[in-house]
Inverse folding.
DNA sequence: ACCTGAACACCGTTCAAGT
DNA sequence: ACCTGAACACCGTTCAAGT
């Protein structure tokens, strides 16, 4: 619906924003490059000026979704409790876009800016808690898997409150185990 | 390559077997109804006589993959240790078809015969261990998420032995936590 | 640099028809 | 009951061309 010679004025962040809307409205199956182009009223291949391909789009979506998860001060009095708070806020954030969650597994995690930031903060907190350096990657991975997996199955069946309670209980057990490893 | 009037003689289990081969050879993206039909040398729509649709095919694949996971005797001396053994053997089985693992999340778990059998065995073991009835679904869910999630990320980066060690450690912490709940 | 038209090589699924 | 031919309504991505 543009005049001749008029630019669409697409933007990478406009593309990502529209992708989030398509995902929310049409779900995982509805998130296609062509549906995204239709929503933006551009030709399908116009997207490739702003995103490398569909995997690149999804990876950006996954990482950007973690942006609102803030990291606690690394000098917190109880570092392991701070890790727990991070994981609870990650879990809550994941549930805000349930259709995105399985994609973390399909893409084997997020690897962008925010994922790195959160991972580095966790590592610093583990170190300050006295977790031996060689145990840190395993501990970090286990907690991430717990949050992602719990979020993936939370929307599956039944009661959200019960799902969150199970997540919180499991998180506590894992943190206790990690603490005991010192 | 059949003569006129000659039946292909397709079978549901032949379809599933070929699907496993396609998945192993061509990966998740390569597993398409049409690629499966090509391998079986039938028309694509011939598959729909043996499988309801692609989701039904995947669901069958997911559940059948758990068939070799045997359940321990429910009168085992240490019921929680028996649950631990079940989860370790599930984890190992999952790693035999890494491409299948993300599909458990996309399909939100397996819900067929074998998934039900393993779930019922876990519940019986938890009950025998003295876990309160209202805690059993959460405990079961948490352990399943841990096994599936650990398997999903095991093939992602690096050392399989380290991944398995992290899985085993996490499993122990979760079982300790579940035991403490009694 | 950014966008379009057109095309390529695919998908899952349905329908009518044949045996 | 089982299978095929043909079609429908899509995909992701590339390429050449226009501004």
């Amino acid at each position: 619906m543009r005049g001749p010679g008029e630019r669409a004025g697409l933007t990478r962040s406009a593309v990502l924003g529209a992708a989030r809307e398509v995902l929310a409205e049409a779900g995982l199956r509805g998130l296609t490059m062509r549906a995204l182009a239709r929503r933006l009223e551009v030709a399908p291949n116009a997207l490739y000026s702003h995103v490398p391909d569909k995997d690149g789009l999804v990876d950006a979506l996954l990482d950007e979704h973690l942006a609102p998860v803030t990291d606690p001060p690394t000098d917190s009095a109880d570092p392991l409790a701070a890790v727990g708070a991070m994981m609870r806020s990650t879990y809550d954030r994941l549930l805000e876009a349930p259709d995105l969650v399985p994609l973390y597994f399909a893409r084997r995690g997020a690897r962008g800016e925010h994922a790195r930031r959160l991972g580095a903060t966790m590592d610093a907190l583990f170190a300050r808690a006295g977790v031996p350096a060689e145990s840190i990657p395993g501990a970090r991975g286990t907690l991430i898997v717990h949050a992602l997996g719990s979020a993936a199955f939370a929307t599956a069946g039944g009661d959200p409150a019960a799902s969150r309670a199970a997540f919180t209980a499991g998180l506590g057990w894992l943190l206790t185990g990690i603490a005991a490893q010192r």
About this structure: Helices of chain A lie at 12-30, 33-40, 54-65, 79-95, 101-106, 113-128, 136-154, 160-180. The interface with chain B takes residues 28, 101-102, 105-106, 108-109, 137-139, 141-142, 144-146, 148-150, 152-153, 155-157, 162-163, 165-167, 169-170, 172-174, 176-178, 180-181 of chain A (CB under 8 Å). Residues 1-5 of chain A have pLDDT under 50 and may be disordered.
